[in-house]
């Protein structure tokens, strides 16, 4: 009787066990998702602890006042809780039978497996298990077209992570239910699918931050599953492959932000009323020139463009480092530096050039931009140091490899524009040179009208500019302007409007040049004696021409040694043209006209000889 019922009992047991197993298959999908999210969350928490520890280390290194003991304490006060692998024996809370801390219960599976072994159906169950799990994994690969991948990527990857955490556990504790080869085959399939999905989704994305968010989560997925022995290099290769696209999008974002920041600038010095404003706009980017906190309200030498652009560049660096971190490449500073160079030389320098060429019209605006460029030069040093610190590179390596200022084109154009605008202003006063009496009966003792107006303007300019421009920039600009004035003086003597002049007029020009030289010397307290002497050299052409025309022996110009020493800035063709105008003066300049005892003035004779020789050279 009992023997007849055995098939029915056997069939009942199979149905009952299969139902329990089917319920477990449904439940394990939900459990896997939660398990994957929790495991990736633990990886994220561990990473956050690492970042905090690095930040404390950087702070300790920067605070030179800390003693060695203080530094050690600052670095070791972090607790020692690490990220233990969820699947490690004795740590994960799993048990073969009951529910673990994650609700991860394998009892129904192992019961079904044991019963099928008892019934002699082990191979069939193993095949049935593998096929069902493979179907589940295939279902997990589906990416919804209704939901943006940015919103669904965490669920997508967490589901797959949980699946393989479960399979790792079953491989280690489930007897021969599934083989290592089968798990590896499933993983290869999953890896291929995840890479394909990432490639497709990354190719569609046009927002840098979206790529960064997904990259961060994928790198956490890699950290999580690597702990279980799954190879994740192919995933990291996909992330690395899209490094260029990410940075191109990031550069595009920064280009827009920088354009907006420059457009909003009023080219006025920033006023900071509180210490926190000073900290946020100056100390944050190491723009201070002194360790002493200024009194408030504080007027900075730069406009809002500087801290606004600094914030954009700093954010770029941090985003770049975030994308490169945990992507399988340990030494990535060179990559970050390469894109930082591009941001500065292509984007920021280009935007500043465009601003200077299209929006700067007045001297005050040009002066402010030139002042900004000097501060940005200090900021660029901070940018590369900041990138090195975040990339884990010693600062001494950055100091060794320091390159030229990446914004040098904009800096040079800014100074050129400022010099050009100042020259235009000076040109307005230099038109008064037309009022000079070139055939004066007496030499003017206090200089001609034009030079007095020019000097008043230059003194006013220096008084204003020294409040904004660093002294070296001010020196370069003033030197350009003085050189221009000297050219204008020589140009007036050379030009068609002056047909001839006498020695009194040249003596007046000599006084003008001396007044300009005196102005240059008077800048020594602001600059230095050496810089003031450099300013004087800007007038050298006018000075040497005046000396030559007033010399008792102008033929010395023909002597190579004397010429190199005293007249090296003079072009002999200009000398010929100008000297001939002096020659055409009334003879009374060189002697008594009409006198029977007339004898040619030695200076006139010397001048004529010089002109003849120089013409022969031509």
From TrEMBL:
Organism: Camellia lanceoleosa
Protein name per its UniProtKB record: Exocyst complex component SEC15B
Lineage: Eukaryota, Viridiplantae, Streptophyta, Embryophyta, Tracheophyta
């Amino acid at each position: 009787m009992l023997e007849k019922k055995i098939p029915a009992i056997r069939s009942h047991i199979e149905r009952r066990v299969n139902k329990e197993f089917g319920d477990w298959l449904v439940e394990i999908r939900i459990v896997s998702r939660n398990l994957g999210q929790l495991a990736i969350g633990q990886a994220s928490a561990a990473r956050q602890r690492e970042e905090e520890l690095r930040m404390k280390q950087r702070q300790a290194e920067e605070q030179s006042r800390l003693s060695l003991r203080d530094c050690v304490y600052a670095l070791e006060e972090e607790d020692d809780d690490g990220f233990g692998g969820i699947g490690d024996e004795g740590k994960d809370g799993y048990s073969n039978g009951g529910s673990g801390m994650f609700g991860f219960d394998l009892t129904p599976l192992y019961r079904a497996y044991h019963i099928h072994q008892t019934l002699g159906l082990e191979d069939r169950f193993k095949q049935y298990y593998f096929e069902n799990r493979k179907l589940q994994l295939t279902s997990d690969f589906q990416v919804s077209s209704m939901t943006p991948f940015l919103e669904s990527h965490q669920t997508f990857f967490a589901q797959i992570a949980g699946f393989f955490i479960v399979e790792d556990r079953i491989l280690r504790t489930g007897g021969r239910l599934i083989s290592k080869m089968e798990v590896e085959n499933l993983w290869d399939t999953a890896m291929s699918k995840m890479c394909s999905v990432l490639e497709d989704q990354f190719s569609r994305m046009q927002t840098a931050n979206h790529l960064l968010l997904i990259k961060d989560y994928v790198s956490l997925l890699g950290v999580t599953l690597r702990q279980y022995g799954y190879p994740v290099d192919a995933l990291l290769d996909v992330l690395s492959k899209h490094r260029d696209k990410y940075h191109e999008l990031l550069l595009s974002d920064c280009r827009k932000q920088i354009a907006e920041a420059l457009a909003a600038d009023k080219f006025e010095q920033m006023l900071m009323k509180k210490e926190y404003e000073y900290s946020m706009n100056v100390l944050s980017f190491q723009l201070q020139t002194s360790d002493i906190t200024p009194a408030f309200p504080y007027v900075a030498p730069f406009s809002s463009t500087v801290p606004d652009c600094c914030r954009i560049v700093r954010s770029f660096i941090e985003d770049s480092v975030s994308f490169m971190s945990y992507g399988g490449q340990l030494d990535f500073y060179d990559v970050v530096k390469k894109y930082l160079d591009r941001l500065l030389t292509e984007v920021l320098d280009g935007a500043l050039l465009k601003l200077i060429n299209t929006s700067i019209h007045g001297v005050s605006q040009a002066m402010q931009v030139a002042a900004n460029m000097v501060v940005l030069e200090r900021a660029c040093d901070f940018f590369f140091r900041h990138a090195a610190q975040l990339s884990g590179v010693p600062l001494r390596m950055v100091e060794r490899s320091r390159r030229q200022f990446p914004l040098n084109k904009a800096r040079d154009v800014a100074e050129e524009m400022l010099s050009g605008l100042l020259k235009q202003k000076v040109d307005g006063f230099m038109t008064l040179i037309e009022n000079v009496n070139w055939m004066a009966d007496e030499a003017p003792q206090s200089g001609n009208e034009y030079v007095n107006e020019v000097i008043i303007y230059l003194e006013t300019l220096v008084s204003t500019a020294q409040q904004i421009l660093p002294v070296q920039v001010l020196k370069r600009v003033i030197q350009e302007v003085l050189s221009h004035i000297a050219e204008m003086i020589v140009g007036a003597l050379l030009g068609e409007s002056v047909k001839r002049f006498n020695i009194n007029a040249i003596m007046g020009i000599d006084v003008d040049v001396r007044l300009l030289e005196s102005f240059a010397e008077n800048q020594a307290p602001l600059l230095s004696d050496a810089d003031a002497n450099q300013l004087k050299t800007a007038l050298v052409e006018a000075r040497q021409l005046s000396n030559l025309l007033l010399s008792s022996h102008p033929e010395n110009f023909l002597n190579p040694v004397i010429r190199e020493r005293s007249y090296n800035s003079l072009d002999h063709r200009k000398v010929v043209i100008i000297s001939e105008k002096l020659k055409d003066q009334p003879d009374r300049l060189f002697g008594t006209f009409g006198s029977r005892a007339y004898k040619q003035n030695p200076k006139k004779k010397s001048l004529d000889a010089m002109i003849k020789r120089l013409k022969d050279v031509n």
